[in-house]
Amino acid sequence: MTTSFLIELTVLILAAFLGVEVISKVPTLLHTPLMSGTNAIHGIVIVGAIIVASQPDQNGWIRFVSLVAVALGTANVVGGFVVTDRMLEMFRRREPAKPEEKKE
What we know:
single chain, 104 residues, mainly alpha, 0% strand
């Protein structure tokens, strides 16, 4: 194995442990907004996958993986915004029910 591969593997493993440690410390109240925000960041994945797929002379499997990345990233972004909208819906004031007018 090359040295650069070992360095990249070490960084990946340390990032995974750090991510688990940070996420496990998030209070329940902040979990939904945090996850909605991180899902929205997947827009970067979509842009990156489109850039990779648009390069000339790409292998077929690279284009396929890029297509899958675009599809999954898009689903994650949309899901993040749906969750955020539902979460914000809980904090909106509800108007009291209007009394029905009696007909005489």
